């Protein structure tokens, strides 16, 4: 896979150059969306840690979910003459003029976690994001492998209807199981990405599928819904993790607890470390003039019960999830 | 002002029955009930168990609406109280946890009541303040993450059972009985209906309208607190971003389906609770049906519209069957 | 009315206007004629039909019958907007303009001068200044309307109406909240408008202003035309007679002989009680078995007086004593605790709770006094309802009927029952016989007499002077928000009351027969 290779290359070169003398003098501003979810809080925590590792002077502006605050923050970073700006855009459009201002000031901009409208492609250096279709595909491929040719009815807990992440994770999973006729989705409903709805929807799936006897696996678009679904299965007398396979996405700490207890099987990580690769790309660009690729895809790592879930839980639990 | 005759709520109960039957048609095992770990288990039980938070909210909301008010903050109050309960559950005893969460709900209600009754702010604006700010307060309590707990005492309130019935259902019925005793066992109900029907006349008749106004908002806050505790206990954690989100609208809808006018006056607690279960029966039915989730809201809207149209006295006359129900209710039925 | 062919038609002619609301006749074949250049006072007590007449001629309500001619041409506006387009504009007491917009914007709202679709602000301000200049008003037209006094707001509203080529201008109580100087300014504007041939319908309840500015007076009473005459042919006393509908010759009813020498306990006394801007300080003594009547025109301060007594408004001066103890009455609850009861004039908005049943409405005040925690049992409520339905002959005799479905007279009886159930020491009745049919009048008067005989103190506001004199032991006459006379014994005559009401502070002499 080409992208993966690129990613690795940039990570390696980043590691090499991050010890460069110039990095220490570097100031980078980060316009963060806010802290609307645990993952977002973890991203902030990890970004700070990654900056410290590289001796970068890192400034974070919390936009409280408002684009106007982000635009203000970027203008203020430009005025301060920072070396680079990271932006986690709250929406896809409306960035043209402020990004042009940054461009005119010769300050490179790196997008984190989310992309902007394709029309603005020339206005930023690179975008570090995860590929949510790929995440779904990793989950699907794991399930095909684990089912090992046996028939397997899957129930799917979708994210919020219309959210692009939900659409992509659904599509990716379907791609992942496309080759295996033994694995098929029998029910699919939205759980709005929340524990409470995940639990409620799972309860109804269990009843609709003969008390859960017909369910071989649960796929949830995020771990929170899966945590709710696991509760629903336990209350219905099912044994998630053994009788019913589970696979979900995000890799938040609580799912590792469930995996350690044997109640969950697998999760695909949406890494909170978007800033690390971004720092490396900027350092390479500043030091060497290395032009990063337009898109740096983060790794969608698969964790299973074999990956010492308790240790992962310990490492993640204080990140702010 | 439209004059409404006392009803016995036939149309609501018929609607609930019809939706349950519809659920049975889309999902033949709907009425199957078995015992699982000493607890009744089945889709019908789910309707009542999942409907409990909105039913609890509607018990407080119906009183507020009967007073010509509205409480938009209940969803946010749920989030606050749920967050408090989850944060304290593993370090404090259950009575302390409940006292703190219910106390917070009471304070929230008091705040709303004082804004409305003393400062004279329009209810929709006054409670909007806490609706917006309350979720932020809840997020501050949880620090933006999902706070989980392991305390079996609190978990019992969400996932436990009493005599086979899920605890949330028992709590809802208990709260309903307590509220009924409070407003129908005393003259408060009459005073609420009089004030909602004509606030100036009621004040001139010597009713302490201000005190009662504060009282109904406090009660709504308490109901929301209990709903928040149940919601947290259910998922063994507090999700400040999502707990109770938009449930104020479901609670208002439940009250309206229950036949209480948004212009105040006559109210029925039991029918508001029936309204909440109508909404949940619909949600559960949609989940069981296997319709694609994109159709959920449309299906829900059509069903709600049908229920409300069936209730409309003006349209009721055009449906022969429903017309008969209305005539029967004219002969002096009893209110809840 | 025989207009010969040589005379030009009147500016505005209404003939046979009728309007009923749900069986209640608000207008009954009313005629009204307005000539160009005339200021025409439209007078009448509450419920006489003034507002309905105005609304019917401007299309706000749809009339049941009648023709409307402007310059001899029949028109039928179906909304206030159509009326404005036809040339009939109305300015209400509460100016219905946008207070936060500038004066100029208010003047030209909806018809701003534009160029290429853009408002020409400069042009608009210039025209606004010119327009207001015609009325001798020179103000900053770009300031928000709300920054000016009510008088100026009225003139702006009038200017807007006139500039929209109004031929007929209806001013509905424009002077209610103006001071003497502002009234003069407004009158100057009105006179100037008449010189341009505009006809003005002027609704007011200040008789002095009628005589100061009007050319002609039309009086409505109970939805009918009571009379119409040029102002110099209608002396003040005759006007009051028209408004209250009494001929001196009719005023023969005598109140029953008062049993003299009977010791009457003071129930409540008020000394120097008043509220600035509402009612001048007054003294009032209410005794057991004694009826005090309050007489006066609309807006003279009768309702204001009883609201202070009942605590519905808080007095800002004076002292009250109940059963020999000094008390302060700050709310209806406190008044109730002292044994007061109050049936307000506005039955629908302040009296009944329409959707509650007769039984619940009757129980309401007694329940409020007992407190929520000691509810009247259903049996007690039923007994209470049955007792008063029988006693007052409330029809239909169904305690479970929503009270809003009852007739006005029966609603009034339910209200009386509500207070009688509390066995009050003092019962205040504000227009107890307004808007109810003649039969119920007699019943309610009979009831008042009975209550009085049983030793209750009564304070009654009534425009029905003939009725008032039959039961009152004392009549307080009010004028211009002050108590001006106290009539007792043989003085309690309709003619005396009318004369006292009609007395002008100075300018208009009393006619001989009223002396």
Strand and helix layout:
The complex is a heterotrimer of chains A (321), B (336) and C (515).
Chain A: H1 2-17, H2 21-24, E1 27-32, H3 38-53, E2 57-62, H4 67-80, E3 84-87, H5 96-104, E4 109-112, E5 126-129, H6 132-147, E6 152-158, H7 164-177, E7 183-190, H8 195-208, E8 217-220, H9 223-235, E9 245-250, H10 253-260, E10 266-269, H11 275-288, E11 295-297, E12 302-304, H12 309-316
Parallel strand pairs in A: 1-2, 1-3, 3-4, 4-5, 5-11, 6-7, 6-8, 8-9, 9-10
Antiparallel strand pairs in A: 10-12
Chain B: H1 10-26, E1 34-36, E2 39-41, H2 43-66, H3 74-89, H4 94-117, H5 123-142, E3 147-148, H6 152-159, E4 161-162, E5 165-166, H7 167-184, H8 188-197, H9 199-204, H10 209-235, E6 237-238, H11 247-257, H12 269-289, H13 296-311, H14 313-316, H15 320-330
Antiparallel strand pairs in B: 1-2, 3-6, 4-5
Chain C: E1 12-21, E2 24-34, E3 39-43, H1 50-57, E4 65-70, E5 73-74, H2 80-86, E6 88-91, H3 103-108, E7 114-115, E8 118-119, H4 121-133, H5 150-163, E9 168-172, H6 180-195, E10 199-203, H7 207-213, E11 216-221, E12 224-230, H8 236-244, E13 266-275, E14 279-287, E15 291-295, H9 302-310, E16 317-322, E17 325-327, H10 332-337, E18 340-343, H11 347-351, H12 358-370, H13 378-392, H14 408-420, E19 426-430, H15 438-453, E20 457-461, H16 465-471, E21 474-479, E22 482-488, H17 494-502
Helix pairs in contact in C: 5-6, 8-17, 12-13, 12-14
Domain ABC transporter (chain C): 12-247, 263-505
InterPro entries (chain C): AAA+_ATPase, ABC_carbohydrate_import_ATPase, ABC_transporter-like_ATP-bd, ABC_transporter-like_CS, P-loop_NTPase
Family (chain C): Belongs to the ABC transporter superfamily.
Describe the structure.
The complex is a heterotrimer of chains A (321), B (336) and C (515). With 321 residues, chain A is of the alpha/beta class. Chain A folds into two domains: 2-129 and 272-290, Response regulator (Rossmann fold, 3-Layer(aba) Sandwich); 132-269, Response regulator (Rossmann fold, 3-Layer(aba) Sandwich), CATH 3.40.50.2300. Chain A has helices at residues 2-17, 21-24, 38-53, 67-80, 96-104, 132-147, 164-177, 195-208, 223-235, 253-260, 275-288, 309-316, and strands at 27-32, 57-62, 84-87, 109-112, 126-129, 152-158, 183-190, 217-220, 245-250, 266-269, 295-297, 302-304. Chain A has a six-stranded parallel β-sheet with strand order 2-1-3-4-5-11, sandwiched between helices. In chain A, helix 1 crosses helix 11 and helix 6 packs parallel to helix 7 (164-177). The longest helix of chain A has 16 residues, at 2-17. Chain B is globular. Chain B is mainly alpha-helical. Chain B has one domain (10-330). Chain B is 69% helix and 4% strand. Chain B is built from 15 helices and six strands. In chain B, the strands form three sheets. Chain B has a two-stranded antiparallel sheet with strand order 1-2. A two-stranded antiparallel ribbon of chain B has the order 3-6. Chain C is an alpha/beta fold and 515 residues long. Chain C folds into three domains: 12-100 and 144-234, Rossmann fold (3-Layer(aba) Sandwich), CATH 3.40.50.300; 265-339 and 425-515, 3-Layer(aba) Sandwich (Rossmann fold); 350-423, no CATH class. In chain C, strand 1 and strand 2 form a beta hairpin. In chain C, helix 12 (358-370) packs across helix 13. Chains in contact: A-B, B-C. Chain A binds chain B through residues 35-38, 40-41, 158, 161, 187-190, 192-197, 199-201, 203-205, 207-208, 210, 224, 227-228, 231, 235-237, 254, 320-321, and chain B through 27, 29-30, 32, 36-37, 39, 41-43, 46, 50, 139, 143-146, 148, 159, 231, 234-237, 239, 241-243, 283-284, 287-288, 290, 292-294, 296. Chain B: InterPro entries: ABC_transp_permease. Chain B: Keywords: Cell membrane, Membrane, Transmembrane, Transmembrane helix. Chain B: The chain crosses the membrane at residues 12-31, 51-70, 77-104, 110-134, 169-190, 211-231, 243-263, 270-291, 297-326.
